# Entry
Amino acid sequence: METQGDIRWEKSQDSATIVVFSGELDRALAAFNIATAAASMGMDVTMFFTFWGLNVVRRERGGGGRKTPLQRMLGLMNRGGSRRLRLSRLHMLGGGRAAMKLLMRQFRMPSLEEMIGLARELGVHFIACTTSMALMGLTEEDFIPEVEDFAGAATYVERASRSAINLFI
# Structure
């Protein structure tokens, strides 16, 4: 147990936190691969989706809602949905992503959508960042049902402070 002032921090060797900042397919796959591995080993895993990482857990068709003209323009250029994610490199107008998905099927790797479902079955906690949501004009209706909580950075910091593993992807 560590003590700083009046706050006591107790780290748990059985928990992990992952910040999903990237909205790119390959990075999202890595985040879910680590999350499901840790959860299958009995760890309590929290994934905190923020900024472009919100696209990983956004519905393809959002709930709409009131948005400023800039938020609408951002929404048109930054469409969500796990099936729309680009590769971080070698995207090649979608050819790289199609090749990656073909290779994943040939090697019997689960798709990102399957990994999201598996993560929830294993008890991984999904949190969408409310600050990023407000900036982008997103509401709770814009997200897939696997997202169980909507919270800010303080919630993430509290969970990360107790975790043995903390990753930023």
Remarks:
- Helices lie at 25-40, 69-77, 95-106, 112-121, 130-136, 153-161.
